[in-house]
Amino acid sequence: GIKIYPSPASTEIHIDLTENSKPIEGLRIVLINGQVLKHYLKTDRIIDISTLIEGVYILQIELASGLQINKRFLIIR
């Protein structure tokens, strides 16, 4: 139930929830090695990535149910 786009992205990514998905509690952008770069509030649905360098990142999405979903995205400029 969660879609992120565009991928590849350049300045921002959007998060869409389907009507069946649980509410989002928090978001984190993480490097492939596990280092957390940014943390966002549950109300954020458009994430500014303009300060990040090109590469592959993971968006960790924490749901209200306690479930964590990892979505990979690519930044190209």
Write the layout of secondary structure elements.
Layout: E1 2-5, E2 12-17, E3 24-30, E4 36-41, E5 46-48, E6 55-63, E7 68-75
Antiparallel strand pairs: 1-2, 2-5, 3-4, 3-6, 6-7
In words, what does this structure look like?
- With 77 residues, this protein is mainly β.
- Helices cover 0% and strands 56% of the residues.
- It has no helices and seven strands.
- A four-stranded antiparallel β-sheet has the order 4-3-6-7, with no helix packed on it. Strands 1-2-5 form a three-stranded antiparallel β-sheet, with no helix packed on it.
- The chain is globular, with a radius of gyration of 12 Å.
- The mean pLDDT is 90.
User: Gap between N and C termini, in Å?
Assistant: 28 Å
Could you give the order of the helices and strands?
A: EEEEEEE
Largest sheet properties: 4 strands, antiparallel
Number of strands: 7
Q: Structural class of the helix and strand makeup? A: mainly beta
Report strand order across the widest sheet.
4-3-6-7
Strand content: over 45%
Could you tell me the radius of gyration in angstroms?
12 Å
Overall geometric form: globular
Low-confidence stretches: none
Enumerate how many helices there are, as a single number: 0
Helix content: under 10%
- Mean pLDDT, all residues: 90
